[in-house]
Amino acid sequence: MRCANGLIDQFWAQTRNGITLGAIYAMIAIGYTMVYGVLQLINFAHSEVFMVATVVSLYAFRDWYGVTEPLTGGTLLLVLLITLIPAMIASGLTAVAIERLAYRPLRRRRAPRLSFLISAIGASLSIQYLFNLMDGNHSLLFIPLPNVLGAAPQEIPDVVSSKPLFSIFGTPWNGQQLLVIAVAVLMMIILDLLVRRTKLGRGIRAVAQDPETASLMGVSIDRIIVVTFLIGGAMAGAAGVLYSVRFHFTQWNIGFLPGIKAFTAAVLGGIGNIRGAMLGGLLLGMVEAYGVACTAPQWADVISFGVLVAVLMFRPTGILGERGVA
Amino acid sequence: MAGTAPGLKAVRGSIRRWIDGHRPWSTLLLYGALLVLAVILPLLPSWFALPTWFERIVSGSALGRVALFALFALGLNVVVGFAGLLDLGYVAFWAIGAYAAAIGTGAARFSLDYRSGRAVGVAAPGWHMWMWLLLAGAIFIAVIAGVLLGSPTLRLRGDYLAIVTLGFGEIVRLTANNLDTVTGGPQGITSIPHPAIHVASVNIVWGVLTDVKYYWLLLFFVVLWAVAISALNRSRIGRAWVAIREDEVAAAAMGVPVIRMKLAAFAIGACTAGVAGVIYAEQVNFINPPTFDILQSILILSMVVIGGMGSIPGAILGASVVVLLPELFREFDEYRFLVFGVALVVVMAFRPQGLWPSKRRALELKGGLAEEMLRGKEETVGSESA
Fold first, then answer.
1. DSSP notation for B141-185
2. B18: helix, strand or coil
3. Which residue in A127, A207, B3, B221 is a FRET match for A302, CA 20 to 30 A apart?
4. Chain A within 8 Å of B171 (Cβ-Cβ)?
5. Rounded-to-integer distance, Cα A195 and Cα A322, Å
6. Which domains does chain A have, with CATH numbers?
7. Does B365 touch chain A (CB under 8 A)?
């Protein structure tokens, strides 16, 4: 009863929350799905790629631009643009570094799958704790670590006003929510075009479909793998900026929950399938939001994990089916 | 092993030849000596004057933690090392065992009534026997949980399994956190009684956390488990695990009941964590959800990996290294997750067989098994060409 009442009362508000959250999940999910497409592996360290971008946003908003009150108009656009670019670069490079250090040595040796998973877990843990320790009071091998983040959560200033702009069905929408959706849609369109229309995209799809034949046709597999990590990382980077705009904080382990949920989204849509990841993200965001309306906010994560377990058990190929990156 | 001095290599070679020539007595002797050493370890400071760093690592609390995590590592080693299934939610079974103990002993708020008095073996006669029955009960509950989680998910690919178990671990923790009527929620459950034995004239009462008797109790289980698991590993079940690890399809074609064997590994892993969980709860006498977070699962995984996947002495060694390093270097404590994270990557890249490898697993983990077997064993174990 409580569930039905909650759903009816909060339907439109939760739809709004679900779409916003889902857009962020979708963008992170793209990274999982693309890497899966070319390597058939889950990049467990992808959540840290996302975390790096939230840290860049923290610095961009708080220190570089010294944002104290929400921005508007041209300034806002400019600040967002020149935050997105370094954040995406930082995330992309983090993803490439993970590939270099944690995956490539194992790929060269044709190690068993288990080794890749363990190596990725190790990479994820070390990146998290590297940021945890970078508070200016620790040093590593006698080299002092800079003060970057530390163990405590850091507040990110509001860049976009949270004042309601307009309302649909009596539910107010604010600029943050609109911005998240607008940027996410834009990024996903660009990515879709990149993968489907360009030569690079054809290379990625070729490697996903059949790496051996692709390499015989002159596609450099190593290069494609690096580019895939880079693009997937950049998308997670953009997601990190949007997350910061929407949730205004960052922490060394902030990537864990969005990461695992984005993975759920990727599986939900059909892993290896980019459009599937977008759909899965949106769907998972909605399910989580309605689930919260139905129960209570502290069950949100349990609901997502439940969805994950259920999808893997009943339809492990996802909604749109598994494919090579397409 | 490229940098080993030639002299050292010769010494090592002659020791190895002696051991190889005198099996199984030499192995038995080695393990016997290690066991005796392990038993008397906490007594050493009272017999000899020892440097403080050594006293620190043989203290009741440090050794208790080593033995506790050795038990966890042994259990996870069956899952990860023997069956080749990556379980990232292993902590869930620990939590289930611990909560089973806490609720079963009546320390939880709702079960307080059925027990008169809190002091063990004092208030209600025969009460202390309940603690040991609980151990069996917790094994049962953990195995049920393992089978419930395992039977639908073990059909999945390895990486999916990893993430489902990760999710399961979080679900258990979050549920413990949210279900406050049963688990006490974030406040946890306090004053879980310590175990005791009163049989005829034998009276053993376990005291506070640092009591060295916990170490012996846990050591007993570690030895019991190590013997049982190594017997299992040499049995038909063990051979089935090898077959599954190397080629699941081929194993199924040869008539190995793949799912059932994976489930067996999962259940054994779960019951080990259940036992350790009960003893943990009774030792620390306070449990709350944050103890059972994902990091513990990864920490236990790093013990198995650093020690050597598929190696029983390796699991124990791995647990000792991972627990004692922060104990030895206090400043190291903050860095441990960073260091063990890096260790996972480095071990996988350069020494996938771990510190104390099992011979057959070492060959598999180095990859390209068939080719290297053809080229000869000496060459593959010795050379590190990539």
1. HHHHHHHHHHHHHTTS-HHHHHHHHHHHHHHHHHHHHH-HHHH-G
2. helix
3. A127
4. yes
5. 17
6. 2-314 (1.10.3470)
7. yes
